[in-house]
């Protein structure tokens, strides 16, 4: 049957229109698929942002969100227009070059430029707002890039890209915003340079690995989901920490640079490490994860993970039902990996507890001696934390912010050049709350050699930390780097001249370290008299005998001048002895010296008592001679004295010989040498005679 040409033309026209309509529907579907993930991920991230804003009473700057979205759109359009030139520039490159340079580096350089423009003027800027600005730029970039792929490559390609590139761009751009925001808060060139370098290298590395997995294909494709979860986890860590950093106005109110605030923030970590190393339990234990309290979010997260796993065996049927042609690896990505990744990311959003970093995180301290030279003299201090631009000093009293000093850092095998410094923050007193006690100083014009020292110090601390944490050979020796008398103390006492530290007879359960001033140690006698045993200066410890289990103090400690003491429990002294052999050896030498001095003092005391006894015996003999002489018996002749002992002997119920032996024993060193006296009197006889004579008295009167 012949078909009329007009009918054939009409059929062709109808088929063409149908194909056109179908193509339009696919294009619209592709565009919708490319756009939908962007607001989804945006809301996932900003959900806990808004929760934090409400808790702090902060109103988000929504106009900056719109501005950031437009910046991200502009960057994407510019890169699309430049793509032919980029293709020509990197023509013939390897997959690695395409992944890390052509894609990751170029895109993140553009994102950094947009973020810097956005952060240039940002009311109430904070590090958290830096993360927010990066997220928004990443959302705008993803929006344009996905639409471009939808218009040029069709639904299968855009589906895979839309599901995974959106969280990639949002997360990596947020990391770029974090580091760019940190650089904006910094006031010194070394720190700004460091953070700008991180703003490029960290996101480029993550983005490059992601693109490498995609371009490599095969089994590497399945790693895209876990990588997305890792990147999301990293971002959650940075977001949680950014919530602790005060905004620009807060730093200005404390008159601190961001670099100085970091020092102050890190000090409690060192102190917690020392306490943990000594077995002292922490007063506050904060979990790392903060469970989400919204049951709906937990249910949605569990449903996404369970649904993705349940659909894995039916991935081909599911994709066919959706009317999309995908390769097997892409089917697994879309049907299982993507929903599971979204579920885990949803559960992770806001799950990291910021208070963990503030109250529970620890850090290994490496203590350096700091010799501080100022017009007022020279002080020997210690520091846990040294950077190229500042350091934290364990000072005992405030340093003058208006004055300059010179500091040299020293440790065995380590020595820094002298650097000028000025105090920017002081805290010395319990009224300052939980903030660390000490002084933050900033360096003024440090020489290049000091930067080399700071780098060596950083790697020295890093190396020691690795040895200690991995329990490599010599790890026990690392404890010497932070187990010192200055570091194990738990509280501080400021005492005025004349104040008592403790009294003899009180409970002994702590020992002391003299930070500044002087302490005198006394022994109190029953008569009320005090004997000065020792005078101790700054840098010494005292009352170490509390470690030996004595329940009462055997001496009294008093401050003759204004003094600053640090106090710790006896258990801390035990940790010092256990983990610092140098200190243990010094303590043994000190105790041995104290024993030697005690023995020497005891020998001198015995000799003195013997001399007193000899003097008393001589005085008694001379008094008896003088008494006899006064009664008419001249001793200058024979010196003999005839005594009628019968009457007093009878009264005392002793024999005359016993009475004479008693008298001779009281007057002469060797009574048995005297005629007729025999051996000295028996002690019981002496006690009996003295008891009977205790009630009698003798008064000498002049004739």
Short structural description:
The protein has helices at 5-35, 37-56, 62-89, 95-120, 127-153, 155-185, 189-216, 224-242, 248-253, 258-277, 295-311, 315-322, 328-348, 354-359, 448-469, 570-579, 581-630, 646-652, 656-667, 683-693; strands at 368-374, 377-386, 390-393, 405-411, 414-415, 419-427, 438-444, 491-495, 500-502, 510-516, 518-524, 530-537, 541-542, 556-558, 563-569.
Structural class call reads alpha+beta
Strand content: 5-15%
Number of distinct beta strands: 15
Instruction: Count every helix, treating DSSP H or I runs of 4 or more residues as helices.
Output: 20
What do the pLDDT scores average to? Answer: 78
Low-confidence stretches: 1-12
The coarse overall form would be elongated
Largest sheet: 6 strands, antiparallel, barrel
The N- to C-terminal Cα distance equals 181 Å
Residues in helices, as a percent range: 55-70%
Return Rg in Å: 44 Å
The order of strands across the largest sheet is 1-2-3-7-6-4
Describe the structure.
By secondary structure, the protein is of the alpha+beta class. Among the domains are: 36-244, no CATH class; 368-481, Thrombin, subunit H (Beta Barrel), CATH 2.40.10; 491-579, Sandwich (Jelly Rolls), CATH 2.60.120.10; 643-703, no CATH class. It contains 20 helices and 15 strands. The strands form three sheets. The chain has a six-stranded antiparallel barrel. It has a four-stranded antiparallel sheet with strand order 8-15-10-13. Strands 9-14-11-12 form a four-stranded antiparallel sheet, with no helix packed on it. Strand 4 and strand 5 form a beta hairpin.
């Amino acid at each position: 049957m012949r078909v009329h040409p007009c009918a054939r033309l009409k059929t062709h026209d109808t088929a063409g229109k149908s194909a056109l309509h179908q193509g339009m529907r696919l294009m619209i579907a592709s565009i919708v698929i490319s756009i939908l993930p962007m607001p989804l991920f945006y809301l996932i991230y900003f959900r806990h942002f808004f929760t934090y804003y409400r808790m702090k009473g902060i109103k988000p700057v929504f106009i900056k969100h719109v501005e950031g979205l437009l910046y991200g759109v502009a960057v994407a359009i510019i890169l699309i227009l430049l793509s032919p030139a980029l293709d020509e520039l990197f023509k013939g490159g390897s997959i690695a070059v395409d992944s890390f340079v052509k894609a990751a580096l170029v895109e993140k350089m553009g994102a950094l430029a947009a973020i810097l423009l956005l952060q240039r003027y940002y009311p109430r800027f904070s590090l958290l707002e830096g993360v927010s600005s990066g997220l928004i730029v990443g959302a705008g970039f993803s929006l344009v890039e996905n639409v471009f792929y939808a218009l040029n490559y069709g639904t299968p390609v855009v589906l895979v890209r839309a599901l995974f590139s959106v969280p990639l761009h949002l997360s990596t751009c947020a990391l770029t915003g974090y580091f760019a925001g940190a650089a904006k808060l910094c006031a010194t060139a070394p720190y700004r340079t460091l953070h700008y370098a991180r703003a490029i290298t960290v996101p480029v590395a993550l983005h490059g690995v992601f693109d490498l997995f995609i371009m490599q294909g095969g089994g590497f494709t399945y790693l895209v989901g876990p990588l997305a979860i890792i990147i999301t986890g990293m971002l959650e860590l940075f977001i949680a920490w950014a919530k602790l950093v005060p905004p620009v106005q807060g730093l200005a109110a404390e008159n601190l640079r961001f670099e100085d605030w970091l020092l102050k923030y890190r000090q409690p970590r060192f102190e917690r490490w020392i306490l943990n190393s000594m077995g002292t339990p922490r007063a506050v234990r904060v979990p790392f994860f903060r469970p989400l309290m919204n049951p709906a979010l937990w249910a949605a997260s569990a449903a996404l993970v369970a649904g993705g796993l349940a659909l894995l065996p039916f991935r081909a049927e599911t994709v066919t039902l959706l009317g999309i042609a995908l390769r097997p690896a892409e089917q697994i990505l879309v049907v299982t990996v993507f929903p599971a990744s979204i579920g885990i990311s949803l559960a992770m959003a806001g799950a990291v507890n910021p208070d963990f970093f503030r109250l529970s995180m620890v850090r290994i301290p490496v203590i350096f001696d700091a010799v501080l030279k100022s017009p007022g003299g020279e002080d020997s201090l210690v520091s846990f934390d040294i950077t190229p631009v500042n350091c934290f000093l364990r000072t005992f009293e405030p340093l003058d912010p208006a004055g300059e000093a010179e500091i040299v850092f020293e440790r065995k095998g380590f020595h820094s050049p002298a650097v000028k410094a000025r105090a920017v923050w002081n805290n010395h007193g319990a009224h300052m709350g939980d903030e660390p006690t000490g002084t933050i100083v900033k360096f003024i014009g440090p020489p290049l050699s000091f930067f080399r020292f700071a780098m060596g110090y950083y790697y020295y601390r890093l190396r020691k930390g690795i040895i200690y944490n991995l329990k490599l050979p010599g790890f026990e020796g690392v404890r010497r780097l932070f187990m010192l008398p200055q570091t194990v103390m738990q509280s501080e006492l400021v005492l005025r001249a004349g104040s008592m530290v403790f009294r003899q007879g009180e409970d002994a359960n702590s020992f002391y370290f003299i930070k500044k001033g002087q302490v005198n140690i006394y022994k109190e006698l029953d008569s009320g008299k005090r004997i000065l045993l020792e005078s101790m200066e700054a840098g010494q410890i005292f009352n170490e005998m509390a470690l030996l289990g004595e329940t009462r103090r055997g001496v009294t400690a008093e401050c003759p001048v204004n003094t600053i003491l640090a106090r710790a429990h006896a258990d801390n002294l035990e940790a010092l002895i256990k983990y610092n052999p140098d200190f243990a050896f010094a303590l043994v030498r000190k105790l041995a010296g104290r024993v030697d001095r005690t023995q020497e003092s005891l020998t001198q005391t015995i000799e003195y008592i013997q001399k007193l006894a000899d003097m008393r015996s001589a005085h008694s003999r001379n008094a008896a001679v003088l008494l006899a002489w006064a009664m008419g018996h001249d001793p200058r002749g024979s010196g003999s004295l005839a005594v009628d002992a019968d009457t007093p002997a009878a009264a005392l119920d002793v024999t005359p010989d016993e009475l004479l032996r008693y008298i001779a024993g009281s007057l002469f060193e060797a009574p048995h040498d005297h005629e007729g006296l025999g051996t000295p009197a028996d002690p019981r006889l002496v006690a009996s005679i003295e008891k009977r004579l205790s009630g009698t008295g003798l008064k000498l009167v002049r004739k």
